[in-house]
Specification:
The complex is a heterodimer of chains A (about 220) and B (about 280). With about 220 residues, chain A is an alpha/beta fold. Chain A has helices spanning about 40-50, 75-80, 95-105, 110-125, 140-150, 170-185, 195-200, and strands spanning about 1-10, 20-25, 30-35, 55-60, 65, 80-85, 160, 190-195, 205-210, 215-220. Chain A has a single domain, classed as Rossmann fold, CATH 3.40.50. In chain A, about 30% of the residues lie in helices and about 25% in strands. In chain A, the strands form 2 sheets. A 6-stranded mixed β-sheet of chain A has the order 6-7-8-3-9-10, sandwiched between helices. In chain A, a hairpin with a 2-residue loop joins strand 4 (about 55-60) and strand 5 (about 65). In chain A, helix 3 crosses helix 4, helix 4 (about 110-125) packs across helix 5 and helix 5 packs parallel to helix 6. Chain B has about 280 residues and is an alpha+beta fold. The longest helix of chain B is centred in the middle third of the chain and has 40 residues, at about 160-195. Chain B has 2 domains: about 1-50 and about 160-280, no CATH class; about 60-155, Alpha-Beta Plaits (2-Layer Sandwich), CATH 3.30.70.3040. Classes of the chains: A alpha/beta (about 220), B alpha+beta (about 280).
Chain lengths: ~220, ~280
């Protein structure tokens, strides 16, 4: 589903941030990308969701080589991914349901399809009763759930999560992880970056340890 | 079409959140196009006045009292052959006296023992005679024809009016150009402000997979709507002003339907161009 092959990425003449990083994520797998701040986790995710280009190596999502694409193809390929962030990245002037609908509008879905899918996603993340609330009216945990719903809207090949619990307290973090595991059980591949190893220690999923731009070890 | 509908939805949302900015932009464009529209209106009416004057303009060629019929025939042929002459009408001495009586009353001619008025030709001219030095050349040539005593014409306001018309047309074009640039700049600036305010939103939309067209469409449509509304508003105010002036001051004409459509469409086009340039300059997608 996701193949990372010999990825190298640096900025300027300094030592590269990512040095020959390789791993695979199979269909329906959930894995954690673990490492301290500055290890290169976010940079690797940025390369996957096409925010940046690698200096060398290949990234393959499904059957598409993301490192050999034209600029014009980027929006279409991004729609095959779902991404969530530490700061949620919700649009302030859109309600929860409108934020989720955005991804479907962009994908060209009809109004009816959008309504049905948005309601389905709101139920999945447990926010059906908050659909008309704006982000500032929601708690951090709720905002992240909206972000997850938006990321899942177009049934992505892979859900990427960049420190999604970074702004949440312990209880909300646990609830979020539980939700992500439920989503994974439904068949969605997930790659989640986190620096908080204790938070995920007990979760029986593969952990890829990244340190100083290199994979140190992987545990099943 | 889908993008257009989504664009309209986005505009509705943006208008709800930034209603003041939107109205401010429409009013600014309204003022700018009002200036351009006023100039166009003045130029148009000056042109109409000039055309009317040209149509009504005629000269009178007075004949010598002792002119013989052969000379008069030659003179008449000469006039008819002139390329600037569209029509001639012979006014005999008796006819001229009759007209004087008709115009000023019997008392005016009561004391006259003989008819002092000369026979004449009323000559209607082509409007091209007012191009360049044609008019003066024609008058000079008429004086040289045998049998012509004098040539009567009202010292024409047409050359002066033509000059005014030319100046107005030139100023109108310059003003129009300036207003177009200014309007485009105003709209572009309004769009720039909106872009700056929503930079984060665009970033999020890009991450979710929005294409450049999807993000740009609402702003292009907004710019066009601002232009169209501003233009339409200035047309409405100009129409009211025209009705007022025509009723209480001098009769003037308003733009015809095609001109109104062109004016509003041009405002819309300027709005579109202003937004397009602002998006090109400030929106990095």
């Amino acid at each position: 589903m996701l193949v990372i092959k010999n990825i190298v990425k640096g900025y300027g003449p300094d030592e590269p941030i990512l040095k020959d990083v390789s791993f695979e994520l199979t269909k329906g797998e959930m894995a954690f990308l673990v490492g301290p701040s500055g290890a290169g986790k976010s940079t690797l995710l940025k390369l996957i969701y096409l925010e940046e280009k690698p200096d060398a190596g290949e990234i393959i999502v499904g059957y598409q080589n993301f490192t050999r694409i034209k600029r014009k193809q980027v929006p279409r390929l991004r729609r095959q991914l779902g991404v969530i962030f530490q700061d949620f990245k919700l649009i302030a002037e859109r309600t929860a349901s409108e934020n989720i609908a955005l991804a479907l509008e962009i994908a060209g879905k009809s109004k009816r399809e959008i309504t049905v899918r948005v309601n389905e996603l709101l139920r999945l993340v447990g926010l059906a009763h908050r659909k008309n609330n704006y982000p500032h009216q929601l708690s951090g945990g709720e905002c992240q759930r909206v972000a997850i719903a938006r990321a899942l809207a177009n049934e992505p090949l892979v859900l990427l999560a960049d420190e999604p619990t970074g702004n949440l307290d312990y209880d909300n973090s646990q609830a979020l992880l539980k939700l992500m595991q439920e989503i994974n059980i439904r068949g969605c591949s997930i790659l989640m970056a986190t620096h908080n190893i204790h938070l995920i220690a007990d979760i029986p999923r593969r952990k890829i340890y990244l340190e100083k731009g290199q994979i140190r070890e992987q545990t099943a | 079409m889908r993008n257009f509908i989504i664009a309209l939805r986005e505009i509705r949302r943006a208008m709800f959140h930034q209603f003041g900015t939107f109205i401010g932009s429409v009013l600014t464009v309204f003022l700018a196009t009002l200036v351009a529209g006023s100039f166009a209106q003045i130029t148009k009416n000056t042109g109409i006045a000039l055309d009317r004057l040209k149509e009504e303009a005629s000269i009178e060629v007075y004949l010598k009292s002792d002119i013989d019929s052969l000379t008069q025939n030659r003179l008449q042929n000469n006039l008819v052959a002139n390329r600037f002459v569209t029509n001639i009408l012979f006014v005999s001495k008796d006819r001229a006296l009759f007209r004087l009586r008709e115009t000023f009353g019997q008392q005016m001619v009561a004391g006259l023992k003989t008819n002092p008025l000369p026979a004449s030709y009323e000559v209607t001219l082509e409007t091209e005679v007012y191009e360049g030095d044609n008019f003066q050349a024609l008058i000079d040539s008429l004086y040289k024809i045998a049998g012509v005593e004098d040539v009567g014409y009202v010292p024409s306001a047409i050359p002066k009016l033509k000059l005014i018309f030319k100046i107005l047309t030139f100023l109108g074009l310059v003003m129009g150009l300036l207003v177009m640039v200014a309007t485009g700049f105003i709209i572009g600036n309004a769009i720039h402000v909106k872009i700056a305010e929503r930079r984060n939103t665009f970033y999020i939309m890009r991450l979710v997979g929005a294409s450049s067209g999807f993000i740009r469409a609402p702003y292009l449509v907004t710019g066009t709507i601002i232009g169209l509304l501003g233009g339409a508003l200035s047309i409405a105010v100009l129409k009211l002003a025209t009705v007022f002036i025509a009723r209480f001051m001098v009769p003037i004409s308003f733009f015809d339907a095609v001109e109104i459509a062109c004016f509003i469409a041009a405002s819309g086009l300027i709005g579109f161009s202003g937004s397009h340039l602002a998006l090109k300059k400030y929106l990095e997608i």
